[in-house]
Amino acid sequence: MRTLIPQENDVSVLPPLFPVFLLHRRPPSITFRPRAELDPSADDLSSRRSSNDASSTSGTGSNKPSDVPIKFTLPKSFGGGIGLGIGGGLFLGGTGSAKAVALWRFPGRRRRVVKDADKKRILIGMSNTGGGHKASAEAIQAAFQERYGSKYEIYIVDLWKEHTPPPFNSLPDSYSFLVKNSFLWRLTYGLTNPRLIHVPYLSSVGCFVARGVGEALDKYQPDLVVSVHPLMQHIPLRVMRQRISSGAMPPTNFATVVTDFTTCHNTWFSRDATRCFVPTDFCRGLALENGLEAEQIIMHGLPIRPSFSRPPPPRAALRRSLGMSPCLPAVLLVGGGEGMGALEDTVEQLEARLGDKCQVVVICGRNRRLQERLRARPQGPGHLLLHVCGFVDNIHEWMGACDTIITKAGPGTIAEALICGLPILLNGNVPCQEEGNIPYVLENRVGAFETRPDRIAAIIASWLLEGGREMRQQFEEMKRRSKALGRPEAVYRIMEDLKALADEPFFDFGPATAALLGRNGKTPAAATAAATA
């Protein structure tokens, strides 16, 4: 029903910091007005404004159904009372200009990103819990930019951090604490893994965060929504389904890109997604177990930065450009974005076992103290040739220059090492979601797993220096198997499929199907016919 509102030149918007109308002295009454009738005439609008003005001033009015006064006596501290006229908007204050005031909650004005009609827009939802989710999002963004330039606008947004209210916006910050306390993380992971638990849980959380997610959709107006995080499925899909059903959003596809390699939390998989991209057969099986149809699931591999798909320069030239020795065997020791793990102990054991017969590249991430301690180690004859780096954006070059890699069982690093054909020595893992990556490496015979620094040094020595002819042959075979498992083209294949989803809504699966046709993707008549057949 259309409501009576003041004219534009009569409205002054009050800041949502303090309800200043409470300071305005009014006669001791409040008058509530019902909404205006549909399509009132100009004369009727004028008469209603006059009537509204009068009743707001005097606190009285005619007792006809469209103008029923309700009086309340207010405490002396309010200066007598407040004049209110409610007709879809709120008229607060004096008899002259009306003041339109936003009621609780008091949201500020949200700016929309100006949309170019000639460009498709893709919103990638992620959360910065570990570096892998963001790295996958950036790989997809880079692939679009490389192939299509500015024809597609890609926005990478941390929906939890930027578009949910407290305390939900602090959820990403709790991840590091939980992972460092493995018992708590295992408990959280195990309790929320069953659909019977996480579906109602996320539905209840959605009641509190749906508004913020809806505002993000309003702001970016995407032609496709992509999730690269397990907690970015159920709530955004629910919001999209409701908005498409109500007409607040055009039919829009939703795609999940799973960035875990093998073991996956079940929140990755929602039957309302248009497509679900998985990296391995193991993940495909989990998706089927969680109720996705085979047609929804596409297996291309893990999206890795396009720089890994380009042929590297000759190793000797690459080493010279990075300041490495062109002759010594090289080991890449990776500690992730935070420089986690027993990196310093591993360096000490490698030096004790290999001396100056090997060089080691240590990627410390943002751990500056570790960088300083390693750079302070003695150099020269009898000591390892150390190359200490912080956070790097050319990891593909360092991998191309080295003979093997020591790393935790992160999915992104494993996928990158496979593309580069490196034998992998795993030295740890995040509980739960990375545990399945260890048997993947061992069963495919592309590496080993060891957590003790002294045993790590012994394995590296046997691979590079002490193993004899048979071990060298096995090491070369590991390189070939590793290279065969790598999928450098995966990011481009995923990108092309996402492009198709952005260009045209699909109605076989997805939020538009669930909103308009029901979850089975069929009209009632079609569903009845299928059931009869």
TrEMBL record:
Q: Name one GO biological process term.
A: glycolipid biosynthetic process
Q: Where is the Glycosyl transferase family 28 C-terminal domain?
A: 331-426
rRNA-binding is among the record's keywords = no
Q: Does the keyword Transferase apply?
A: yes
Where is this protein found? Plastid, Chloroplast membrane
This protein's superkingdom?
Answer: Eukaryota
One GO term in the molecular function aspect is: 1,2-diacylglycerol 3-beta-galactosyltransferase activity
Q: Which ranges are annotated Low complexity under compositional bias?
A: 52-63
Major localisation = plastid
> Would you tell me the Gene Ontology cellular component terms?
chloroplast membrane
List every stretch annotated Disordered: 32-69
Please provide the record's keywords in A-Z order: Glycosyltransferase, Transferase
The EC number on file is 2.4.1.46
- List each copy of the Diacylglycerol glucosyltransferase N-terminal domain by range: 133-304
The similarity annotation says: Belongs to the glycosyltransferase 28 family.
What is the protein named?
monogalactosyldiacylglycerol synthase
Species assigned in the record: Astrephomene gubernaculifera
